[in-house]
Amino acid sequence: MSSYAELKGYYHLRETIGSGGFAKVKLAYHALTAEKVAIKIMDKKGLGEDLPRVYTEIAAMKELCHQHICKLYQVIETEDRFFMILEYCPEGELFDYIVAKDRLAEDEARLFFRQIVSAVGYIHNMGYAHRDLKPENLLLDEEQNLRLIDFGLCAKPRGGMENHLLTCCGSPAYAAPELISGKEYLGAEADLWSMGILLYALLCGYLPFDDEKIPQLYKKIQTGKYETPAWLSEGSKQLIGQLLQVDAKRRITINELLNHPWLMKDLNVPVEWHSKYKRQLDEDCITEMAVHYGKTKQEMETLISERKFDYLTATYSLLLEKKIKGRPVRLLHKQNGSSVVRPRS
Ligand SMILES: Cn1cc(Br)cc1C(=O)Nc1[nH]nc2c1CN(C(=O)N[C@H](CN1CCCC1)c1ccccc1)C21CC1
C-alpha cells in the first residue's frame, strides 16, 4: 500500500472504498478533527487525455457549496497525481440503495427527487450543467440525504447557460436524444432529461430505455417511447412524461419543477434550491484554529477567507461540520514528542 508522503501527518489513510479507471477513493481520517473524509486519488499518467476533466471537476467543486453536493475540502496536486479530499458519505450510492429495495415507494422517491432538484437547481443557477446525472453519482450521507458527485463531465458554457454545448458525454442510458444526435444542445435541458431517467429508475427499479447494443439503445431513446408499469400513479406518469420529452424545447424546466404538483404533494412547500451554507465565517471555529496555530483571530480569519483549499480550508470546513453535528468544536492538539511515562515499578 503506497504511503502517499503528501498526506502523512495530515490524513490517516484506511481502506479503498471505490476504484475505477485511473482513480480510486480511499476512506481516511483528518488528523486534527478525527473526522472521516474520502480521498479521491487520480494518477496523472493514466488519465491521459482525460486529464482536463480533473481540472474541470476541481474548478467546479471549488465553486459549488450546497447541502446536496459532496463537499470538496482540499486539493493536493503533485507531479504525478491529484488528491481530492472530499466529504465521506457512509451509506454509499443511491444506485445500490434502489437495487437493495427493488424500487422505491412514491413518497420515498419524492423526497430523494426533491433533493436532486435542489442540487440541480443550484448548479444551474451557478451556471453549470452536470451532464452525468445517474444513481451511481448520488451518494447517501449519514442522515440518508443525497450528495451529488463526479463533476468531471460538467460544463460551464462560456457566456452562460443559454450557450450551446457540443461534446457528447455522460452515460448512454441517461443521455438526452439531442445529445446523442450530435446536434448542439443546452446542458441544462440535457440534465432535465437525465432527471427523467433518474425518476423512472427510482420508481421502477429499472431503466426506461435499455439495450446492450448502443445503436439500438440510441434508437429507443430517440423514439422517446417507454413502458409505464401499472404501479405508477397518474401524477408520476405525467411528471415523467414532462421530463422525457424528446423535443428539448417542450421539456419541463428546472424552475417549473421547483413547485410542480407531484413534488409538492403532501409537503406543500416548493423545493428550496439555495445553499444553506452561510458565507460569513464561524467565530468558534476561527477561535479554536487561532489557538491551535498560535495566531490572532484576525490573522486566522484572513488566512481562512483566502479559501486556498489547503489543509487550513479542510480543517475549518471539518471543524464547522463537527459544530453543525453538535460535536465539540475542538482540534486534537499536537502530542508533544514524549512517550508514555510508566509509573516507576
Ligand atoms: C461505496 N461506498 C459504500 C459505502 Br458504505 C460508502 C461508499 C462510498 O464510496 N462513499 C463515498 N463517500 N465520498 C465519496 C464516496 C465515493 N466517492 C466517489 O467519488 N466515488 C466515485 C464513484 N463514481 C460513480 C460512477 C463512476 C465512479 C468514484 C470516482 C472515481 C473512482 C472511484 C469511485 C466520493 C469521493 C466522493
Notes on the protein architecture:
This protein is 38% helix and 13% strand. It has 345 residues and is α+β, with helices and mostly antiparallel strands. Helix 6 packs antiparallel against helix 8 and helix 11 packs across helix 12. The longest helix is centred in the middle third of the chain and has 20 residues. The protein starts with 10 loop residues before the first strand and ends in a 21-residue tail after the last helix. Bound molecules: the ligand Cn1cc(Br)cc1C(=O)Nc1[nH]nc2c1CN(C(=O)N[C@H](CN1CCCC1)c1ccccc1)C21CC1.
Task: Name a few traits of the molecule.
about 350 residues; five-stranded antiparallel beta sheet; 13 helices; 7 strands
In DSSP terms (H or I, runs of 4 or more residues), the helix count works out at 13
User: Quick check: average pLDDT?
Assistant: 93
Number of separate strands: 7
Please state how the strands of the largest beta sheet are arranged side by side.
1-2-3-5-4
Radius of gyration: 22 Å
Provide a concise account of the structure shown.
The chain is built from 13 helices and seven strands. With 345 residues, it is an alpha+beta fold. The ligand Cn1cc(Br)cc1C(=O)Nc1[nH]nc2c1CN(C(=O)N[C@H](CN1CCCC1)c1ccccc1)C21CC1 binds next to strand 1, strand 2, strand 3 and strand 5.
